Amino acid sequence: MKKRAVTAVQAEDRMQIIIVGAGKMGFALADSLINEGHNVTVIDNSEAVIDRGDNTMDALFIRGNGVRVDVLKEANVENADIVIATTAGDEINMLVCLTAKKLGAQYAIARIRDPEYLESLSFLQKEMFMDYVINPERSTAREVSRMLRFPFVSGVETFARGRVEMVDFRAAEGDGIAGVALKDIYKNRKNLPQVLFCTVERDGEAIIPKGDFVIQPGDRVYVAGDVNTITAFFRAIGKGVSAIRSVMMLGGGRLSYYLAQMLQNMHIKVNLIEINPEKARSLSEMLPGANIIQGDGTEQELLESEGLTDADAFIALSNRDEDNLMTGLYAVHRGVKRVIVKSSRENYTAILKNMGLDSIVSVLNVAVNNILRTVRTRSSRSSAAVVRMYRLVNGKAEALEFLADNKMPFIHVPLKELNIDKDCLIAVIVRGNKVLVPFGNDTIESGDSVVIISKRTGISTLNEVIHLR
Predict the structure, then answer these.
(1) What is the pLDDT of residues 304-330, one digit of tens each?
(2) 3-state SS assignment for residue 28
(3) Are 241 and 234 in contact (CB under 8 A)?
């Protein structure tokens, strides 16, 4: 069994976690949870999968059906802090949660993806003892819909119930921030809306910038602020924020269905290309307001005849990464101002960006991030536990949201008088409806939402980051 270095966690925060289903999502979750110091058991029916896991991961692998009582008992389910059901079957995942909770598991998470369950999900969640439900495709669709606001960003994440946005973009010559030290940007341009420069990705590495840091053209820059300030900032540096009125989509899977629904609710015209005749027919019934085109979306003639160059955005969401790559590159070549592609392979990300495809979404990453956030919340016995988590620069840094309370020793103390972890940055403080970009004289008060950026992974509480001197 291969041993791996893990992030140190407090003994009381180390959890017993069972994962049922060792597909791509199950393996990715297991890997992340092991690296954060938790004890992980994985259950799967496949002997090949079990052998692979035994040879590569520091986890207990059990071959069997995760719904069966004897298999769950072999995994010590009665002492499990969390059971995560990630099999390909929604119904199986529900039954896993029900059985595990009945046998004594403390918390159960299920992956439920079928749109048929959407309306009755709250009822099913209660009746099947599911504490948390993740719908990866719907969550990813929500992320893509946010990305459409800015034609030049590769990702948008929200914190503090939508009051704070974190957006990343590539710095370029002429935008007024490249070649200038951060401490001088606002000195030189006093009317520039103030956002916080959180993280910079350069040559694949994550940098938490200080005042003397100089952004270079080509750097990927992460900034945070309230929604209006972020929008005004981009306008001020010459990056236009234009409305999206029409979208062409490739692929008719669950992700495309959820996204098309959201876009129609935003009064955006949707043209969706699906090669499978039966699936195209079904989508026509499920999405009566969309234009469903049955055909091969990788054919340039079809894309052109259906109005590719007239679309404000092209989004490639098929189940084949190669098709998404090729059609996305063609859309960029044809001058479509907003191109987003789905990729299931993380090692493709750098290659795609170098080829001009900056906006890449991964259903797997969205799902893993959401579940890790939930695990972090459960693992900490502290009231200062993480509320929201977003991984940056391919997991080399994290944005974490915490809710402050009066039990924390650093409440009311100016930030300049506190010791803050050298690998961390306090990015934003949200107090009521006011979003603060903090400076040395600012304080953290009870009830504040605090967003930090950290290059150290595995942080579960705000007390791990901020200390009294």
Answers:
(1) 999 999 999 999 999 999 999 999 999
(2) helix
(3) yes
Residue 343's closest CA among 355, 335, 334, 333? 355
What percentage of the chain has pLDDT greater than the value 90?
Answer: 62
Tokens of 346: 């993380």
Gyration radius of the chain over CA positions:
23
Could you write out the DSSP letters of every residue in 139-199? HHHHHHHHHTT-TTEEEEEEETTTTEEEEEEE--TTSSSTTSBHHHHHHH-TTS---EEEE
Q: How many residues does the chain have?
A: 469
Three-state DSSP at 83 gives strand
Cα–Cα distance, 89 to 111 (Å, whole number): 9
The Cα 108–Cα 118 span in angstroms is 19
Residue 302 has a CB neighbour count (10 Å cut-off) of 15
Could you read off the pLDDT of 269-310 as tens digits, one per residue?
999 999 999 999 999 999 999 999 999 999 999 999 999 999
Whole-angstrom Cα distance, residue 434 to residue 463? 23
